[in-house]
Amino acid sequence: MAKAPEKTLTLESGGGGGGREPTTEGVVTALDARNAGIPLDLDVIAEQRANRSAIERRAATSGKRRSIKREWQAAWLLRAVTMIDLTTLAGDDTPGRVRRLAAKARQPIRGDLLDALEVRDLDLRVASVCVYPTMVSEAVSALEGTGIPVCSVAAGFPAGLTPFEGRLAEIERAVEAGAEEIDIVITRRHVLTGDWPALYEEVRAFREACGDAHLKTIMATGELGTLRNVARASWTCMMAGADFIKTSTGKESVNATLPFGLVMARAIRGYRELTGYHVGMKPAGGIGKAKQSLEWLILVKEELGDGWLSRALFRIGASSLLADIERQLEHWVTGRYSAYHRHPMG
Question: Model pTM?
């Protein structure tokens, strides 16, 4: 495929103005020190506030104050690919579907587009493949030798209302099967009733069950009632040792939104200032368009800085998003949009 000579692209070079692409300067490639958690501080939890109108106004302008165009947009989209937790969490999942997903994870962007963009040497890959616990072994086998970790949902996903002992056992079995990352769901009633000690102890137990596997706590933000509850739940999960805080399961009626993300990002920043620990953020659910991924990257860059623009500290849980990013990259190369069936998820 021919490529116009003026469309040179690199992930490292600077852009111009509001369209500046993410650089590697200051990027955290691995957690400096895994979040060990701290004792629960109910005074810090109680003092959390969230001005809904101000947060919604700030979130509404986040993606509009920066215009990312041309080669810089392509570079940002390629960066977004490296932060995707490529996910299949359907009731009709099969080993074959998981193997197809793994194949797409190994080469998330079509080879002809990589050549046209002159980025094949970047060795692009997604951040992880996320599946149910019963599919972990199949995913581990399909990804052997790639360095791509397998992420498993657990702890009674998506409702989190199964008996506690069973939730712990599910985490342990997923880790034994080879999962290096565990996405658990919290008990929402602990947040809705303000029982922060119960939430803290729950997440601490999940963290212990994970062992060396990294723990992402799904807070189901759309079911927590208020933005203040989102802030309080974020702090409690981080104090309990969560490596990431995650918006949603993708099964709620309201999933990842920028106001939720803004509250979580500011909680992460406050926790970093208090403890020195970096905690990651993962929006998930309803992020299917390339434009949305750019909005999230802009929010993270502005609220947390370039240090969070890596798979070590930022993930996007998605499936159809990858296909739309490929479409946008093909449009940048050819000037034409192609059909979705030319860009299968897996």
Answer: 0.90
